[in-house]
């Protein structure tokens, strides 16, 4: 029978949770500064978008690769190396002398996404089972804490001291956290010595990079342009060859024994949760900033501040849901999360123009559902695979989360662009016309997310309970 150190678990939880806080703090501070970065380096908006695209591509590939390496060489060792690289990249970004160096440092910074599967795996491996859901809830809550700190603090620092100063504040945090994890976090006790599937890694990287690049650049380059069609074809071919290779090789990059109905349910559902989160942010950004009567005419800073209540709710709900999960079960919490998300999103769609606080209250209700889903899905996953495979399983989960985050802006942006209305302002030179999203655009985006929530109920209901009642986790 496994023995656990409860005191160690309580000490380690805030450290591992701070990993999520650090990454969200750093990334959320970057968003409002993109126009200033574009102006400083004298690049086009299309060029500036690479700052986000290259991070997403690098992070998606890194999450899968380093999650697997954690299973082989030890999750603490790999996490420490990833965090060291991340700290160096954050420092380099703040001092980047040119745009090319900035993109290189952002690519290295993408390694930060690999911290999540490694941190979740260490919690599942080294913590007493009854503490795992609560600890996973604390880590999930740190996503919200990072956003809450970053929005006002990042906006203030960027406005008064420049965008580079925001990275200078992140550097000492990254260095300190790396040091503390190296000193205080214990190495995982479960490993799977095996050879590295370099062919599988190459095929996976090609598939993921070409798909994410096509999805990210499709609106700018044109969906029928030769570049986009070539990238999508490359992604499809790579995916097919990757699948054949993984099914036939002796040591596949993604171990075949991790796949079961729970892993499939958690993977599909997390893509939908990520999609809904990103879509909601884009919807609200447009609605809040469009001129009345088509929106609320808010500034960028006001928009960010109005998004704080959902983040605060995430901080409160995530640990509570973790504590309830051992009693109610991950499936039941996930199902309740779907119900909250559907009700909250549909009420928001019905009250788009009923006032900011009315709308935010319903959005917050939907975010309760997203938070319940986030915490329940990671527990459904980590309690459903052998502990020596946790890095691979959680890495794959992060990959699909990123796919959902990448698809959402493209779909939501297309809807907001195609369902529009024209407004005009009278000027001495005559009326000036411009288009704004129509109400139908916001409703369609919400309805798409709602339909996806309902669809995800199917794999959740067919999953096997691993917590609560008489369930016996692996």
From TrEMBL:
PROSITE patterns xref list: MFS (PS50850)
Claim: Amino-acid biosynthesis is one of the keywords in the record: no
Source organism, top-level taxon: Archaea
CDD domains, per database record: MFS_MMR_MDR_like (cd17504)
Membrane topology: Multi-pass membrane protein
MF terms (GO), sorted A to Z: transmembrane transporter activity
Location in the cell: Membrane
TM region positions: 12-28, 48-66, 78-97, 103-123, 135-159, 165-185, 197-216, 228-247, 259-277, 297-321, 333-353, 359-381, 442-462
Main location class: membrane
GO cellular component assignments: plasma membrane
Domain Major facilitator superfamily (MFS) profile, residue spans: 12-467
InterPro entries from the UniProt entry: MFS, MFS_dom, MFS_trans_sf
Keyword field: Membrane, Transmembrane, Transmembrane helix
PANTHER family named among the record's database cross-references: MAJOR FACILITATOR SUPERFAMILY, TRANSPORTER
Protein name: MFS transporter
Organism per entry: Pyrobaculum aerophilum
């Amino acid at each position: 029978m496994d023995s656990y150190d409860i005191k160690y678990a309580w000490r380690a939880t805030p450290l591992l949770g701070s990993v999520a806080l650090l990454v969200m703090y750093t990334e959320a501070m970057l968003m409002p500064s993109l126009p200033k970065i574009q102006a400083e380096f004298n690049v086009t908006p299309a060029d500036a978008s690479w700052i986000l695209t290259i991070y997403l591509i690098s992070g998606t590939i890194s999450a899968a690769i380093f999650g697997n390496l954690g299973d082989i060489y030890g999750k603490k060792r790999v996490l420490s190396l990833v965090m060291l690289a991340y700290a160096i990249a954050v420092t380099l970004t703040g001092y980047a002398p040119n745009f090319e160096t900035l993109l290189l440092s952002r690519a290295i910074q993408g390694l930060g996404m690999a911290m999540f599967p490694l941190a979740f795996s260490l919690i599942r491996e080294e913590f007493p089972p009854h503490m795992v859901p609560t600890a996973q809830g604390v880590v999930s809550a740190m996503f919200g804490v990072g956003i809450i700190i970053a929005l006002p603090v990042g906006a203030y620092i960027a406005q008064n001291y420049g965008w580079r100063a925001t990275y200078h504040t992140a550097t000492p945090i990254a260095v300190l956290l790396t040091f503390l994890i190296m000193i205080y976090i214990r190495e995982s006790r479960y490993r799977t010595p095996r050879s590295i599937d370099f062919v599988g890694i190459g095929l996976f990287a090609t598939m993921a990079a070409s798909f994410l690049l096509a999805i990210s650049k499709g609106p700018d380059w044109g969906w029928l342009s030769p570049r986009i069609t070539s990238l999508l074809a490359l992604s499809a071919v790579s995916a097919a060859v990757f699948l054949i290779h993984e099914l036939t090789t002796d040591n596949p990059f993604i171990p075949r024994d991790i796949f079961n109905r729970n892993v499939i349910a958690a993977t599909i559902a997390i893509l939908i949760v990520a999609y809904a989160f990103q879509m909601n942010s884009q919807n609200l950004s447009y609605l809040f900033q469009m001129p009345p009567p088509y929106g609320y005419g808010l500034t960028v800073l006001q928009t960010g501040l109005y998004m704080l209540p959902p983040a605060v709710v995430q901080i409160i709900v995530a640990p509570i849901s973790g504590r309830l999960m051992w009693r109610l079960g991950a499936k039941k919490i996930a199902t309740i999360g779907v119900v909250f998300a559907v009700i909250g999103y549909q009420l928001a769609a019905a009250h788009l123009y009923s006032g900011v606080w009315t709308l935010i209250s319903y959005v917050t209700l939907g975010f309760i559902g997203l938070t319940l889903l986030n915490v329940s899905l990671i527990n459904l996953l980590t309690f459903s695979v052998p502990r020596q495979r946790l890095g691979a399983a959680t890495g794959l989960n992060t990959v699909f989360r990123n796919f959902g985050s990448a698809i959402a802006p493209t779909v939501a942006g297309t809807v907001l662009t195609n369902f529009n209305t024209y407004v005009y302002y009278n000027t001495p030179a005559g009326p000036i016309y411009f288009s704004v999203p129509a109400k139908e655009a916001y409703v369609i985006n919400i309805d798409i997310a709602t339909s996806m929530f309902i669809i995800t109920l199917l794999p959740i209901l067919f999953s096997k309970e691993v917590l609560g009642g008489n369930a016996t986790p692996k």
